[in-house]
Specification:
six-stranded mixed sheet; 2 domains; Rossmann fold
Length: 294
């Protein structure tokens, strides 16, 4: 993993931050259905001070007794623990246009991080492929936000997909009920995907599935004989896509329908997002529909 001080890393993270901030400016509503109404600021608990916390929240009486810094945490700040699950399997590296699925998903993840932190929620990050590749528990400090962005930007697609195993692994790590936001191309068997989602629902988590696909994956628009190479070591296939297009599109739609219906049956929010659509536009539509249904 490249050090945070590396100039190339800093430039990439800054680019992601700018993209995320631009998206947030276009999103005019909140993200989650809050379990609390109003804006309670009642004291809830203490936690250890971490760099980036506001000094005004330090409890100086506790410091006087323990000689250690502790921050007062209020009910509003403990409103929700959110976990963003970001797919880093090899297939996420595909892009028929200027933006790969991995880049698009990272931009969405960064924008949602800003939205959640502005609501005074805490945010964690899990990257997954065949299992959970990396995990950062939720927090809400500026330093934590920078670390989240760094990990999102540095995540390189390259592992095989085993969504069921990854979701089961992640569900075991998340003890407290909260919000799980999944960003993935979901290129796995629908039954395995839905079984994995059930792990979260059994633990009473609220789940959002944002299905990220390249538009070419939906239509197979290629017009000449081509060699297709699997991005997760599946080998190659030389074929004429025109002869496969109708059956391919039928298979893709059946896959999407199975996942969409399965998510509905287990009360999991689902949205398809294609990489040719502006992220802010896609998020505004999804969040607006989510608010209307709440």
């Amino acid at each position: 993993m490249a050090p945070l001080a590396d100039p190339k890393t800093l430039a990439r993270v800054a680019s992601l931050e700018l993209r995320a901030r631009a998206v947030v400016e276009g999103v005019i509503s909140g993200l989650h259905r809050s379990p609390h109404h109003g804006y309670s600021v009642e004291f809830a608990q203490h936690r250890n001070y971490t760099p980036g916390d506001e000094i005004r929240h330090i409890d100086w009486r506790v410091y006087g007794r323990s000689d250690r810094y502790h921050v007062k945490q209020y009910e509003e700040e403990t409103n929700l623990k959110a976990h963003i699950a970001l797919d880093v399997s090899g297939s996420m590296g595909y892009g028929s246009g200027p933006t790969t699925k991995a880049q698009y998903a990272a931009t969405i993840a960064a924008a949602l991080t800003y939205l959640l932190l502005r609501q005074r929620d805490t945010v964690g990050l899990a990257t997954f492929g065949p299992g959970v590749v990396g995990y950062l528990p939720p927090a809400g400090t500026p330093a934590h936000a920078r670390e989240l962005l760094r990990r999102m930007e540095e995540a390189e697609p390259g592992e095989r997909t085993d969504i069921g195993a990854a979701f089961g692994d992640l569900a075991e790590r998340i003890r407290r009920k909260g919000l799980v936001i999944i960003l993935s191309d979901l290129l796995d068997e629908p039954a395995a995907i839905l079984k994995g989602l059930q792990h979260f629902r059994h633990r009473k988590h609220e789940v959002i599935v944002l299905h990220v696909l390249d538009p070419a994956e939906l239509t197979l628009p290629f017009e000449s004989e081509s060699v297709f190479e699997g991005m997760e070591n599946e080998g190659t296939l030389e074929t004429d896509p025109r002869a496969l297009r109708i059956e391919y599109q039928r298979t893709v739609q059946a896959h999407l329908t199975a996942i969409r219906r399965g998510c509905r049956d287990i009360r999991t929010d689902y949205a398809l997002m294609t990489t040719d659509r502006p992220v802010d536009e896609a998020l505004v539509q999804f969040l607006s529909e989510r608010m209307r249904q709440s």
